[in-house]
Amino acid sequence: MKKSIVAMSLLLASSVSYATEHTAHWSYSGENGPGNWASLTPDFDACTGKNQTPVNLTGFIKADLKPLKFNYKVGDSQILNNGHTVQVVYDAGSDVVIDDDKFTLKQFHFHAPSENEIKGVSYPLEAHFVHADKDGNLAVVAVMFKEGKENPALAKLWSHMPSKEGDKIALSHTDNALDLFPQNHAYYRFNGSLTTPPCSEGVRWFVMKKPVFASKAQIEAFKHVMGHPNNRPLQQLNARVVME
Ligand SMILES: [Zn+2]
Questions:
Q1: Which of 56, 97, 230, 238 is the most exposed, fewest CB within 10 Å of its CB?
Q2: Structural domain includes residue 31
Q3: Distance 238 CA to ligand 1 centre (A)
Q4: Given its phi and psi angles, is residue 20 left (phi above 0), alpha (psi -120 to 50 degrees) or beta?
Q5: What's the CA gap between 100 and 104, in Å, rounded?
Q6: Cα–ligand 1 centroid distance for 140 (angstroms)
Q7: Domain count of the chain?
Q8: How remote is the CA of residue 50 from the centroid of ligand 1, in Å?
Q9: Closest Cα to residue 112, out of 236, 216, 185?
Q10: Beta strands at 117-118 and 56-57: parallel, antiparallel or unpaired
Q11: Running DSSP on this structure, what letter comes out for residue 161?
Q12: pLDDT at residue 9 greater than cutoff 90
């Protein structure tokens, strides 16, 4: 599977969809797979950093974590398949307050199986809600999916599933991303990175403790469209702690 080289453009400067912006062809297996990302181009040097994501969330440190205040509105504008994931681009105007700073939801996308693990448990699907503040600092909120009953919010999105790499389908701005969240917003927090090249660090990670459900058919539909697992292998925690 050959992909063209995309013009150089650094994610953190632009705050748009990171999964589509990279400087060299990378993949989830083979020669251009995760173990070799850092050697593909100097732009991917961070992929061998000490604060990388995903991780196995474990060894929790009790902390005074404030509730996340989600101020999400309807805002799905497009669903696209970039060959690495299926991503929903989100309108401006939805945010979450973190560390007294406003982070705006830019896009969310999916990984199967999950990238992060919770206490050694892998999930069949994980969603990443990618936010940026006005200075381009990133915060990602992760939601795990467990196999079970059908997920109505996911069903609405999947009805527009972009089945081929490069497909982009306009959405009707009627869905609220919060419908994909568990009711209980308790979370784990750690410092990490983008899980795709350029693997930039300094990303604030929040993983919802409670999973939501997706049906076997919904999980299979995503896996079928991807045609390959799209999870980066676990990275070492090193000196980091996971707060709860
Ligand atoms: Zn992701």
A1: 238
A2: no
A3: 21
A4: alpha
A5: 13
A6: 8
A7: 1
A8: 18
A9: 216
A10: parallel
A11: -
A12: no
Q: Which residues contact 11 (CB under 8 A, 6 or more apart)?
A: 18, 21, 194, 198, 200
pLDDT tens for residues 11-62? Answer: 333 334 444 444 689 999 999 999 999 999 999 999 999 999 999 999 999 9
Token representation of residue 211: 């999973």
Distance CA 3, CA 206 (A): 31
Tell me if 87 is assigned to some domain.
Answer: yes
CATH classification at residue 59: 3.10.200.10
Whether 9 is in a domain gets the answer: no
In this prediction, residues 234-238 reach a mean pLDDT of: 98
Are 92 and 196 a contacting pair, CB within 8 Å? no
Query: CB–CB of 176/72 below 8 Å?
Result: yes
For residues 87 and 182, what is the distance between their CA atoms, to the nearest angstrom? 20
Note whether 175 and 93 are within 8 A (CB): no
CA of 150 to the centre of ligand 1 (A): 22
In the structure encoding, which two tokens stand for residue 102, read together? 């406003």
- The answer to whether residue 183 scores a pLDDT higher than 70 is yes
> Rounded to the nearest whole angstrom, what is the distance from the C-alpha of residue 110 to the centroid of ligand 1?
6
Residue 91 has pLDDT above 90, yes or no: yes
Query: Which position among 84, 109, 111, 128 bears the catalytic label?
Result: 84
Q: Are 91 and 67 in contact (CB under 8 A)?
A: no
84 is catalytic: yes
Asked if omega into 198 is within 30° of 0 (cis), the reply is: yes
Q: Is the pLDDT of residue 2 over 90?
A: no
Q: How far is the CA of 63 from the centre of ligand 1 (A)?
A: 25
What element of type H or E holds 76?
Answer: strand 76-81
> Domain span at residue 142?
49-226
